[in-house]
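Before the break, one more example. Copy the sequence into your notebook; we will annotate it together after we see the structure.
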Amino acid sequence: MSELVTLKTYLGTWAGADAGRTAVAQAVTAIAEAGVGIADLVARGPLEEGLASIRGVDPNAGGDAQKELDVVAEERIKAALLPTPTAFLASEESEELIPLNPEGRLVIAVDPLDGSSNIDTNVSVGTIYSILPYDPAVHTDPVSAVMRPGVNQVASGFLAYGPATILVATFGEGTQVFVHDRQTGEFVLARTNVEIPAETKEYGVNQSNVRHWAEPMSTYIADCLAGKDGPRGKDFNMRWVGSMVADAFRIFTRGGVYVYPGDKRKGYENGRLRLIYEANPVAFLTEQAKGAATDGKTRILDIEPHHIHQRIPLVFGSKAEVEKIASYY
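Here is what the structure looks like once it is written out:
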């Protein structure tokens, strides 16, 4: 049996004596450790009273109802990152950047609890993060350090809290999967250099919204539903959890595409997922796994943000199928 590689060992080897990489390694370690605590809270389910309840009457900074566990998760991540070289934290749950370490040379964007609407249904939820370099001499306004195209990320990943607590991570050298070993308390490397199959017969979308979609998306889905007798010439399966980290991990495991288009409903015209907190980190992971990510017309990692909580349409996964969807636009 080959020797197990822990996250600590992997990061130590990757970072070496490089100060910039060491800073990233410290931040990812802190996020992973915070994730273990969040996973424990999620696992308690209804025994942890009130965590699925909506906090107050006002939505979060992104305009969504804010669950109690959203806030708890943000606080745990913030506390974990305080001792690291992280200058600022941008969170889906907060309107403004959160200052952390004045000497820090990183800015980190997080969705503290992706899929929080599923907390009380025992469906996998997770934490998504994006890491960018920060130079105060260049970015005199720290918001400008966050408001950069995703191609500038130095690392990204997500934790999925399900039957296992899983970390999917990239440092720009492929996409790796780590699993939390509850016996040792360590994250252990389970899959190296993940590759998403280019071709697929599986898509994930909330098809109940078909009446609201623009013609390109409704035509794509209709062609898939026509199966082998239609223009695509093959039968498709549909899988949809409604928690992006769960849907994403399925794609990193066996391929497929995730589709969340904009539509005609108020508040959905420009898509629903956040560019900085969700689309960019997942797009970086996807491309590093030989997949692709687009808003239908533009590569996600090339999009210039115009607002810290900007929403966009998102399609990611198997490269050939993502390109096929883009062709409908």
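The chain has a mean pLDDT of 94. The radius of gyration is 19 Å. Try to locate both features in your own notes.
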